[in-house]
Amino acid sequence: AQGAHYWQAPARRALTQPRLSPVAPSHANAAFLLRARGSSARRDRSACALPLDRPAGCSGGTPPLPHTSAETMAAAASSAPTKSLDSVIPDAASWMSDEERDLANVLLSANQEHLFAKWAAGEDTDKKHAFFEQIAMLEKGYPGGIAAYVAKAIELLEASAKGVNPFDGFKPEVPTGVKLDVGDAEFDKFEAAGLDKFHKSAFVLVAGGLGERLGYGGIKVSLPTETTTGRCYLQLYVEQILARQRAANAKHGTSEVVPLAIMTSGDTHDATEKLLADNANFGAADGQITLMRQEKVAAIFDNDGHIAPEDDDAFSVQTKPHGHGDVHAMLLTTGLARKWADEGRSHIVFFQDTNSLCFTVSVAAMGVSILEGYTFNSIAVPRTAKEAVGAITRLVREDGSALTINVEYNQLEPMLKASGFPDGDVNDDTGFSPFPGNINQLVVDVARYAEVLEASNGLVPEFVNPKYKDAAKTTFKKPTRLECMMQDFPRNLGADDVVGFTQFPDWTYSPVKNAMADAKPKMDEGMQGRSAAEGEMEMYESAARQMRALGCAVAKPVPVSLATEVGELKLAVGPQIVLAPSFAVSAADLRARFPSPASVTVSARSTLVVEGDVVVKSLNLDGALTVKAAPGARVVIDGLTVSNAGQTFKPIPAEEVEAVPESIRIRGFVVERAEMREAVFVDACEHVLSE
Q1: Cβ proximity of 360 and 483 under 8 Å
Q2: Which of these, 654, 652, 384, 645, lies nearest to 533 by C-alpha position?
Q3: How far are the Cα atoms of 182, 355, 589 from residue 507, in angstroms, in the given order?
Q4: Residue 189 and residue 71: Cα distance in Å, rounded?
Q5: What SS3 class is residue 137?
Q6: Fewer Cβ in 10 A, N or C end of the chain?
């Protein structure tokens, strides 16, 4: 692609700078294509540097190591083929290049002779060359190469088969952190601190997944967050960054550009690039957005670490995602983490692809990191006891050293019971578990982060989670692979690093990840199904909730049943309020936008869309209204009453389902707009919108 750069990470443990190389894209954990587009009481000093030979815990229940150990890599490097290359591939001399011979010997040294079992001499030479192109990617894409990967897999699979407890020697305790409620004085303090340094921040979006679980074939970041304006997730995120960038630069008299790095995958990279190109990067400056493409790792089909060939192709091996923990290695090998540190940036915020409300809290969380001195800060929400959500937990060893980390719910329960809590995880006086829920939104100190990345080669602890066919744990149901998770980064930190969490109300977390058919059973029981329909309503209600907290008379949602193709869908439907990022960048800013909140009324059936520099002094809305102020224009709504037919949500008739775009169909409804008053102001002056 024009303007693309391919980065090659050297396959060694000591890595300080990325190398530019005109070869197939790869990096020290997953291959990628990079393209630049255009209170100490609250602290928990966690001794997180674990010995290489000691299990550190993992999501899948098998013991990871902090990174590929020197012993593992050395053992892998010293292996020699048990059979000669020419005895396994008799015609090798007639077609193999020197590089292909080296790769074949790597495979033989790693006991992968079976990959050549169905090869016939003198046939399919082109397919054989293609095979080694794939092997070259796998070899270059993992520190120590395929031999180290296989050795690590064998090591972890052995521990898995033995049922090794990854948390032996640890006692769980309630972690310390900061709990905030959106819009209160403490929240305002921390959000102001974050906004003050926003121009010195950086953002990383993990967006490697398609929308298949949602019933959507495209990339998730292209989905509309809501159907009133049609603003997609990626557009919303970019606009959130740009709005706060403008505010911070205006305060400091600077012209800083806040970078956004997006981790894509082979499934999403091209579509993400096209989405940005088709929309002029949603207003981002040239080079402000960087795409980093993650590739996959080899699948393993048995405890001996044998790589799985494709079922119907003797010239290809099965690969699987290595996990979102790869984002750390990618930030190392692209040089972005070091670049941001050298630029004097303060913090990096990591966030996920389909949580439209993440910027409601991320700046305040950054403020917590700044004021509390956190090296690593997990954004969290309340979770009920035994809820199937990872829990932020403080793990204490017998020597008193501690580690604050995400622990999966099915690991936390037995740990608590084994530590003298017979009932395990129970709700406290707040009605929630004392162990907050992890949502994989992270804030890290840039300078320390870059330093630790370089020391650890960008790797976080890996784990393996095979599904066994037999009780003896010798046969897999399907091939497995090594995995890693971004939230495990604290395992690489040291005793002086401050690791904590910031908890916000649960309504600030609204991930969209399930199709209606999967979400409906949960919704029928009054639980969150995490469907696109719910995500849209929760986005509207977030704005309405914040307006009500200011004193505006905004109607509350009411239960509504919609007939869908999977049955009656129960939704909480209220006024559809969309407050664009350009309207308010903080809770304090939002308060200033409504100087007389008692004079603002919005009925249950209303729709309100506001963009730009708009002040709402007095408004009585019973219908649909859009007010937009172009850059330079200022609008004051004063004494305005709007009453019209507005818009409604209508079920999609069965005979029309296929005609409705997939991004809308997955919600089970369409917006039927009868009437909307639109007021758009472009002249760079103050305008008054009234009767």
Answers
A1: no
A2: 652
A3: 10, 11, 20
A4: 48
A5: helix
A6: C
